[in-house]
Every structure is written in C-alpha cells, then in structure tokens.
Amino acid sequence: MRGRFVRGFTLVELLTVVAVIAVLVALSISGAKTALKTASKIKCANRLRTIYQASESYCIDNNGWSLPARFQNAPGVGNAFWFYILRTYLGPASMFSDICDSQYRCTAIKSTDTNYWAWGYGMNATPGYEGASSSGTMTRYNYMSYSSNGQAYTWASPFMKINITFPSKRLFVCDSTEWQMPYSMASTYPDIKRHGGDGCNVLFYDGHVEYLKADRAALAVTDPSQF
Fold first, then answer.
1. How are beta strands 70-74 and 143-145 bridged, if at all?
2. What is the mean predicted confidence (pLDDT) over 111-117?
3. CA separation (Å) from 11 to 14, 18, 77?
C-alpha cells in the first residue's frame, strides 16, 4: 500500500499566523482603550450636567443670582469656592465635606493631578466679559467679596443669571487644570489631554455639554459672540 503523506505547516506559515494574531490582539487592545476613553468622556459629560442642575437649584434659592466663582471673606462663610457651595445641593449638608466628591469628579482625573481638589473642573470666573465690550463692568469677576465690615465690594459682585448673554455659547464649567477659568487664562487652563484627545468637555450656561478643542474653549470664555 502506498503510504499517505501528511503535510504540516511550514515555519513561514506559523510565523505568519502568529503575526496576524499579534496584530489582531493589538487592534483589540487599542479599540478597548479607545472605548474606555470614550466611556470616561461621556460619564464626565453626565457629571457636568449634574453640576449644572445643582447650580440651577442654587440660582432658584438665591433669587436668580448665578453661582459665584467664590465667596470671599463672607461673614460666617469665609472663603468658599463654587464647588464647596454646590456640595449642599449635591450631597451632605456640610459645605466642606468630601463624602460626595468622588461622584462628581471628572472620571479621568487622578489624585495626583493639580486640580483634583476641585473635582478637576474650572468655572468661568468672568461670565460677563466679552472681547468686543468697552464696558468695565463686563470684566468684573463673578465673586461675592466682602470687606472687613461686612460690606460687599461692587467690583466683585455676582451676575444675575438672566443677564448672562449667549448662554448656549458661553462656557460655564470645563475640564481644567485650575478651579477657575478667567478670561486672562482661558487659553492655558482647559485640560485638553485628560480624555486622550485634543479637547475638553465644556458645560455651557444653558446646560448643554460639548467636547471642544482648546482654542474654541477659550473663545467660549473670552468672546462667545464669535463662538
């Protein structure tokens, strides 16, 4: 009887199969990382919307005044940043409690990042500023600041929510390396690396969220009429 010849794989064929498998694994890992970053970005956007709802509650409780970037030297309060103020609307009653913080931090920020203590976000500290404006009041900071005798400084008074123009184009809060987003630093504070792309999540004064590149985010602070 004629014997059967069983042909096996050659070395080249085996190496080709291994190479193909390696490529597929690499693509799978890359795809998984991209999916995780996308999920993190979406979760961050949802947390910004929750922050917006809390700020709306503050506005209602304070007769239409917008959330200030900071209470400075306020009687009985001292210095309290915007994220401290919102804690009473998001979780525990204590203004300086950290219990609820993990639920509202940007999902991509790490404990070693510079703005971790502020949830990884920065608030527009000059919501009345516009590049084309010649009015001095438009550049004032959205602070509630008090003198030693308890009188509020006029240069640092907050804005009425209804008077903030271009709410669908004006930046309210965004991924940031600082707790505030003043017009003077609008091009350097947005954190455009956190979600693995070249942009950041931006919450606008009307409550919607967009993912913007740094130049667009800066424009949404400095001159939203041109956004």
1. parallel
2. 89
3. 5, 11, 76
Give pairs for 138-141: CB < 8 Å, separation 24+. Answer: 139/183, 141/69, 141/182
SS3 31: helix
> Which of 53-62, 101-110, 114-123, 209-218 is least confident?
101-110
Q: Look at residues 174, 32, 193, 170 and name the one whose alpha carbon lies nearest to residue 106.
A: 174
The residue to which tokens 């003077």 are assigned: 184
CB 200 within 8 A of CB 211: yes
- In DSSP terms, 176 is beta-bridged to 190
Structure tokens at 123: 């608030």
Q: Find out whether 127 and 139 touch, Cβ atoms under 8 Å.
A: no
What pLDDT is stored for residue 165 in this prediction?
86
> Distance between CA atoms of 36 and 38, rounded to whole angstroms?
5
CB 81 within 8 A of CB 118: yes
Whole-number Cα distances in Å, 179 to 62, 70, 121: 22, 10, 6
Q: How far apart are CA 104 and CA 186, in angstroms?
A: 23
Q: Which of 42, 89, 54 has the alpha carbon at shortest distance from 207? A: 54
Residue-wise pLDDT tens digits, 6-26: 566 676 666 776 666 766 666
Residue with tokens 């009015």: 135
